Amino acid sequence: MPAVRSGRPADAAGRADGRATPAQSALTVAVIVAGVVTIRPLDTTGRGLAVALLLLVNCVLMAVRLLFPGRFSPGWMVAGVLAAAALMGVAGTGTAYLFAFFLTAWTGYRLDTRPALALAAACSLLCGGALYLGSGPERDAASLIVGFAVGAPVLAGMARRSRNQATRAVIAAAEASEAAARAEARTAVLTERGRIARDIHDVLAHALAGVNMQLELVDALLDTGDLDKVRQATGTAHGLVKDSLRQAQWTVHALREDAHPLVESLAAMLESSGHRNALTVTGTVRELPAQVTQGLLRIAQEALTNAARHAPGAEVGARLEYAAGTTTLMIVNGPATERATEGWGSGMGLIGMRERVALLEGTVTTGPVATGADRGGWRVEAVIPG
Question: For the segment 259-303, what is each residue's pLDDT rounded down to a tens digit?
């Protein structure tokens, strides 16, 4: 999924770092310029001096809100309410009301709902009162309407704040989803590593243990001078090496994502181990997920390896059954017809087989064959959903 940048999102009140956008900066400057140009009277004495000082205070507050939004605290907002109301009361003409409009909009964005509404209501009452007291009788109703309208922009600020909070919530949810996806991917990687480790163990551990035992036997036989037994031990070691190479080929084949279909792969595996026409397929053959195919191939490999080690010379048969919702693989070998090599192997093969079947949510049954032509042999049966 696409990466999501963290941090406070940019919003209508400014950039992600809290500073105003160029458009907002231009609008603020326009309000200040309009006030300086239109608000009258301006003078150095009397009412003109009061208007000039209040205009300066409002312009400074607008500049502080523009340049230092993070420091524009509720105390600054209260001061702005008083300054805007006073300016509207003493100014004879001009756009003094714009300062109050901008202040209440910023209040709605910056503060929580209750304090924002309270401050906006106070601004409306103060501005309305200032206009009412400074106007003639013929403008009383209009003054009240304009004064109360000063608090209306707080609703726009609150709506903008709610929208930005929703945006931040969506981004936080996307980041959490991305983190969960990364964790899931890491878990999948670790699971795959465990599977590969089991496969490598199945290929190397048994063979290397057997080769090591034969080499130790050769070392002991050299002191006796019994060359026939030395040759026999080295021949056994060579056979183990060849067997491990063949298993390595099977493992590479089973690990490939683009492995051949299951039936062809099983037939080739049986043939390479010396058992021709040993596979029986029942049911309607269908394509299985890659994980199921690989798991069944590795189970077959382990079963054939065990048969070769513990029942050399025995006949081996395999049956693959496609049923509704399940796939069953059974491999059965008869009793040994040749002398088996004892004492080597880690005993972890069956454990790895059970772990592999458990990952596929299936079941595996192993045990001796008590009846039939293969009596005295061994049976491995795996049932996998899919």
Answer: 568 898 888 888 877 888 899 999 999 988 888 888 888 888 888
Task: Using the structure block, give the residue that is written with the tokens 């304009």.
Answer: 146
Q: How far apart are CA 57 and CA 87, in angstroms?
A: 9
- SS3 of 19-56: the string is CCCHHHHHHHHHHHHHHHHHCECCCCCHHHHHHHHHHH
Hey, which residues does 12 pair with through a beta bridge? none
Per DSSP, what are the bridge partners of residue 317? 332
| Separation between Cα atoms, residue 386 and residue 382, nearest integer Å | 12
Could you tell me the pTM of the whole model?
A: 0.47
Phi-psi bin for 177: left (phi > 0), alpha (psi -120 to 50), beta?
alpha
Beta carbons within 8 Å of 326's beta carbon, 6+ residues apart:
383, 384, 385, 386
Quote the CA–CA distance of 46 and 25 in Å, as a whole number. Answer: 33
The one-letter amino acid code at 277 reads N
In the sheet that holds 378-385, the strands lie side by side as 279-282, 316-323, 326-333, 378-385, 363-368
* Residue 64 to residue 59: CA distance in whole angstroms: 9
* 150-163 confidence digits (pLDDT tens): 888 999 889 988 99
152 burial (CB, 10 Å; 0-12 / 13-18 / 19+) is middle
**Percent above pLDDT 70 for the chain:** 82
